[in-house]
Amino acid sequence: MRIADEGLRDRLAAEYVLGTMSARARRRFEVYLRGNPQLRAAVARWEARLCPMADLLPGIEPPPRVWAAIRGRLKFDLPARAGFWSSLAFWRMSAFGSALAAVALAIVLGLPKPEAPAPEGRMVVVMHDLATNKPAMTASWDPGTPGGRAVRLRVLGHAEMGPHTAWELWMLPGGDGKPVSLGLITTHETQVVHVPAALAARLDAARGLAMSVEPEGGSPTGLPSGPVLYAGSSVRT
Amino acid sequence: MSLPEALAPDQLSELIARCALRDQHAFARLYESCSAKLFAVAVRITRRRDWAEEVLQEAFVNIWNHAGGYNSARSAPMTWMTAIVRNRALDWLRRPREVEIGEEHEELMASIPDESPGPEELLRRSLEAGELAQCMKGLTEEQQRSLSLAFFYGLSHGEAAEQMRKPLGTVKTWIRRGLERLKACLEALDK
User: Which of residues 196-225 of A touch B (CB under 8 A)?
Assistant: First the structure.
């Protein structure tokens, strides 16, 4: 019985790998495969036997659009080519395109500088959703103290992060200073972002904060590369 | 266009391992090195360039997503990737036309008993095409032809029978005997 079963298993594995099964039989076989390591081993053996036949085929160079499509589907930042990210359907589908994001950042950067830091008071930033102009996230911290800063974030409403994306928080320094990353954040209602002491003075003097949508792992360029969803200027209370 | 760089199996295994660690450069290199071979597999089975492009795209997305599950001790890198491409291509090919001769396989499958997992033996790395070719020569002409039709063109039993203008049962037997002989020959060479 057992030998007979083994023979059956092996025969089915061979036909599966060879590709003679109908769609329905293939699907059913794949269900069995998942729960049966011996069947998987039999399939692996047949793949090892038959797949080298494919080496006999002369290669055919696929057109470049195939790689472009793969990269797009996996949301790669590779190769680091200008305009690559903005070309992705991902950005086109998001509320804010890159061009708009740049405009939004420029608006925030052009905001008047907050009053000179006073020793007392708390820094507060109300970030607005740039698409709806509604308050979307608040940040607050105690300025002027030695050491780093604990920036308390509060996400308002029920924000959702797209799959394979990340939210990155940026500090917008005054003048011509480029945005400085404060790291990745989550959609949790309350969270604390720790800013190192080296950046503390700049954070206290910053014009504001912004949040951009980035690929998983954060911006590949060190600057906001995706749409800026939220931004707001710093206010001393 | 420059020829794709031919990489040794060890190098390919390493690239796949790096893909598991989400190394996009490694993935790009893997694509450069293997896409032409794998595209040829997809073109042959789907018989349409546009379908083959879709298949290759899906296959490489799968390769990236499942790189963590690749075990170089169990299968050679090209075997693993070829199997992914072939499975995508066969699924694609079988998509429009449903029925055919699934009943027999289904019957067979229903009789597979569920067994508790035994220790998985380590599988030998894939045989060189040389060994395979040698064993193919030991098959009858009809066996060779029917196996090749199924493997390279993704033909089902019925389609292969039509192509060879032979009764379905005859072609099924050629394929089954061909596979048995191939297996026996390759196993003998293994020892």
Answer: 217
